[in-house]
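Hello,

Our lab assistant flagged a job as stuck in the queue for most of the afternoon. It eventually completed. Since we weren't sure the result was trustworthy after the delay, we are filing this so someone can double-check. Below is the sequence as submitted and the structure that was eventually returned. Let us know if re-running is recommended.
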Amino acid sequence: MVGAWGLWPALVDANQLENARLNLCINARDAMPDGGRLTVETSNKWLDDRGARERDLPPDQYLLLDVSDTDSGMIAEIAARAFDPFFTTNPLGAGTGLGLSMAYGFARRSGSLIRI
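-- returned structure --
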């Protein structure tokens, strides 16, 4: 976990934020069955007019939560569906396919976004 000092306050449901972070970390962990590195970072992010327009958000100050791993990444077809409810690449009986869609819904309800 890499945390920045002086993070801006954010008005957000703490339990839903924790659930989203947990789901992102579980998905990243599962993407690395042979091991790897999982990094969670927090930082402040200012979106100017251009940056906000590119992300379909209003210009403002945002708190960034970045979850990354050392896996090879997703192919475009999977990345395009990753936030769809019940979509999973796990074998039958291993996962619900709800983790990323729940994180996506939380981000949007919180006035933010989530990207792969």
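-- support follow-up --
The delay was a queue issue, not a problem with the job. The result is valid. The longest helix spans residues 14-30. The longest strand covers residues 38-47.
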